[in-house]
Automatic annotation (TrEMBL):
Keyword Flavoprotein (UniProt): no
One Gene Ontology cellular component annotation held by this UniProt entry: cytoplasm
Cofactor field: Mg(2+)
Gene3D superfamilies documented for this protein: GTP1/OBG domain, P-loop containing nucleotide triphosphate hydrolases
Gene name of the record: obg
Protein name, entry field: GTPase Obg
PROSITE patterns cross-referenced by the UniProt entry: G_OBG, GTP1_OBG, OBG
Annotated region (Disordered), positions in chain: 333-363
NCBIfam families: Obg_CgtA, PRK12297.1, PRK12299.1, small_GTP
Length: 363
């Protein structure tokens, strides 16, 4: 299945209801005066990050979200009812962009985070509001303000715990298939993987999410091959597993090529802990294996793990190493706050779930 990580959605908040023009009429009451009520506020459009969702697939089936309009005011000083809000429920890690696909509106990184994408229009004042000493019988009222409408983009950056990187044919998809129930396409030609795949790996009863992305080649940051556009998916992982195929002629060079592309991509991706593994070692004899291990160690500055997804050798060790980094990183962030505060373009502020429930009072 293709992993859906982007969706275009049209939203519209509700129009405000109009104020009413009305006068009190009763049999024995002369000059009853104006009693037209105010219109209700239109409903807002909110977005909220919730647990239990992994994709934006729901937005493929529903792309229009409209809040309802505020009701008109009525006589006897009756105000119109507020329009109902509508909330887009998205997975944690979703970013919302303007129609230009570049301007970030909000970045939902935590469960329960909410953001108001479009405010409902205010209701208009009824004629009772305009009563004053100099005009005791105003015969006008305000119309309600229109709601906002716009097209936005939802983009989900996978929040996998570990990300697989490497040249094409390094064995990334084979690794994912060996340690999880994911069934990515595997073949001995470059760029078998065209879209990121996710899987849940289990080690010693603990689980973590692993992301497999298309291979990187020299010049990926300039768009060569599939380019580096899927690196966003591993940007938020805790750790990278860098696979270098033992079938590569020069393993040191293979390692450095990918490392260079990661550096060119930026976004602090090279600050992440990296675990290096020489993969597909079943194809080598002991002599060559030793030589290639040494070569790779020299390039990356540490002893690489040696694994074969086919025979299973070294797999447990590498999974444990990944798990240890993830557990440690998760423990660290529970104490401190997330390193980066979400960038907000709007004057609106993020409200968390325990603030007032629908956020706004009528106006
Ligand atoms: N002998 C052996 N072959 C392997 C091993 N792992 C992967 N292969 C083979 O290497 C080839 C490439 O594997 P993939 O898992 O598709 O490689 P990839 O890194 O996902 O490649 P891209 O998706 O193109 O970037 C396939 O023919 C696999 O069968 C291994 O441990 N041992
Ligand atoms: Mg692959």
């Amino acid at each position: 299945m293709k992993f859906l990580d982007e969706a275009k959605v049209y939203i519209r908040s509700g129009d405000g209801g109009a104020g009413s023009v009305s006068f009190r009429r009763e049999k024995f009451i002369e000059f009853g005066g104006p009693d037209g009520g105010d219109g209700g506020r239109g409903g807002d459009v909110w977005v909220e990050a919730v647990n239990g969702l992994n994709t934006l697939i729901d937005f493929r089936y529903q792309q229009h979200f409209k809040a309802t309009i505020g009701m008109h005011g009525m006589g006897k000083n009756r105000a119109g009812a507020k329009g109902a809000d509508v909330t887009l429920k998205v997975p944690v890690g979703t970013q919302i962009f303007e129609e230009d696909e570049e301007t970030l509106i909000c970045d939902l990184t935590q469960e329960g985070q909410r953001f108001r994408l479009a405010a409902g229009g205010n209701g208009g004042f009824g004629n009772a509001y305009f009563k004053s000493s100099v005009n005791q019988a105003p015969d006008w009222a305000n119309p309600g303000l229109p709601g906002e409408e716009k097209t936005i983009w939802l983009r989900l950056k996978l929040i996998a715990d570990a990300g697989l990187v490497g040249l094409p044919n390094a064995g990334k998809s084979t690794f994912l298939a060996a340690v999880s129930r994911a069934r990515p396409k595997i073949a001995n030609y470059p760029f078998t993987t065209l879209h990121p795949n996710l899987g849940v790996a289990t080690i010693d009863g603990q689980e973590f999410i692993l992301a497999d992305i298309p291979g990187l080649i020299e010049g990926a940051h300039e768009g060569v091959g599939i380019g580096d556009r899927f690196l966003g998916h591993v940007e938020r992982t805790r750790v990278l597993l860098h696979l270098v195929s033992a079938q590569e002629e020069k393993v040191g060079k293979a390692y450095k090529t990918v490392k260079h592309e990661l550096e060119a991509y930026g976004n602090d991706i090279t600050d992440k802990p990296e675990i290096v593994a020489l993969s597909q070692i079943d194809v080598l004899d002991d002599e060559t294996l030793k030589k290639k291990t040494r070569e790779l160690a020299r390039a990356c500055g540490k002893t690489p793990f040696r694994i074969s997804a086919i025979t299973g050798s070294g797999m447990t060790e590498v999974l444990r190493a990944l798990r240890d980094v993830i557990v440690e990183a998760n423990a660290g962030t529970q104490e401190e706050k997330p390193a980066k505060a979400p960038k907000l373009r709007h004057r609106d502020m993020l409200v968390s779930d325990d603030d007032s429930d629908d956020g706004e009072q009528q106006g």
